[in-house]
Amino acid sequence: MKNFFDNTEIAFKLKSDAELDRAYFLFKMIAHQPLVKMGTAITNFAIKAHLPVEGIIRATVFDHFCGGVSELDCMKTVDALYTAGVCSVLDYSVEGKETEEQFDAVVARTLKLIDFVNEKEAIPFAVFKPTAMGRFDLYVKVGEGKKLNPDETKEWDRVKNRFNTVCEKAYELGVSLLIDAEESWMQKAADEIVEEMMVRYNTEKAVVFNTLQMYRWDRMEYLKELHARAKEKGFIIGMKLVRGAYMEKENDRAEEMGYPTPICASKKETDDNFNTGVRYMMEHLDVMELFLGTHNEDSTLLVLSLMEEKGISKDDHRIWFGQLYGMSDHISYNLAHKDYHVAKYLPFGPVRDVMPYLIRRAEENTSVAGQTTRELTLLSAERKRRKM
Question: How many domains is the chain partitioned into structurally?
Fold first, then answer.
């Protein structure tokens, strides 16, 4: 499959000259790790000190990487993306909640979001994070198989009930639901709940999608074991494949606590593991549906080649491509231009509450070799093209 992602006219057709210049400036900043660290420290201080910085943040990094402060605020962006054939996944990106009231509030918001998604053809998926439904430390304790005290047992039951409430609503309305992956030491418990939801609701198609972080060397084994259980129990596997977003934290914790890191030893091993997962899922589309969450051109082209080889149509509902809003527009818009299913993850939420997500995104970009350089090269090419 020939690489067609260099068409910057298609990639950036929704960006004004001012937005193109802003994107170039932001990625130039992100390219310098010391600037990222200094900028995040200053931003964290300003927010904690309640300094009036929201306007500056909103006009720069927030508007580039986020859709808005609420669902309705996102609709201008959602509608604009859809004119180019790109769908949206509204992602309420508020992190670090710890109370039962906050978790219940997320459930209520997610249920409303599912209703919202059901009415909008441009938004084919809803999404949430496991730790939006329960305490991180509780997932860890359950995953490690430790005995819960009576209060924790009731708390864990409430977590499972929150998952079920949301998944049942998605099932009733026929809305697909993406559940994000998080740190490895809490993921086992999350995987177990999501599999329960798949058994219950993925009887005819994938309503519930889990996420596999393929920078973990153990994820292929998990996928194969899940496949065996799916065949035995008769459910469809919905799976979003990503490389992963917590690499530095994973390696640091493994070193600190003296266990082998769950992360692949090199970028190449991660790429090979990811592509192995892609091939495996493409071989088993009878019981699997794939959401390819990647900014990697080679992995995207691999899926396109396999689709062509197997005679799979571009509009097959079992295969979706996804990228984050504000990144890899050259992949998203060029895929959509050729009529593949594409969706942008569109984070939203109050500016101050979304900052932890934005900081993590900036730090992730500095640690991914070549990602920022590729963005800058394409943005530069489009700026030159427009001046010709």
Answer: 1
